[in-house]
Amino acid sequence: MQKFRLEGKSAIVTGGSKGIGFGIATALAEAGADIALVARNQGDLERAQSTLRGLSSETVEVYPFDMSIVEDIPALFTQISTEMDGIDILVNNAGGTRRGPAESVAIEDWQFVITLNVTSVFVMSQAFARDRIQRQEGGKIINIASIMSEVVREDNAPYAASKGAIRQLTKSLSIDWAKHKINVNGIGPGYIKTELTQPLWEDEEFSNRILEKTPLARWGDPDDIGSVAVFLASAASDFMTGQIVYPEGGILSRF
Question: Per the residue annotation, which of 63, 159, 191, 246 is the catalytic one?
């Protein structure tokens, strides 16, 4: 089981102050990693920092930042890497959506989702890879995809397009950076109970439809995603790259 331990490793988790991101940060901290949390809200970051410092991780730093400001991402990464003496693991979790019928989606909403969910992931990954290549050290990148990387539901075209792009971006980066011993994989969560999805799981009719479609008959928890992230961040997954792991309760297997 030592292969799953992360002592001596440092990880960035974007969108890490709550929800799936916080679940991932919690799992990585429990496995021994030092953590850098990136999110927009200072208060949320400080609350997450306080909780994580009670775990086995000794170092938890916070960086208030809007990941949609992609031109400033390289400087952010340089700052974090310098202050934490290198970053071994990058979790690209920050994301968002703009829902509505495809014929009514404003170009501004489309561009916002693509910028936040795809462009920021590429720019942050590029900054990470350049740093690891210069150091001549490998690393692990974990991109947060979605079951909508494979299937879709109505009124969510920008999000579905962005998560399909993440699936292919993960594969492409894994090929480009394999020679540098940088593993690039992804996690495609199903329906997870978070603050963001609260209107959905509190909607009894919608929630019942999800439970009927999900063979394991429950919503997932952030912990379900965190455990997969530990595997992908650790030496246990050293021979795995370019893959999306789907912790989704079996929903993709049901016709």
Answer: 159
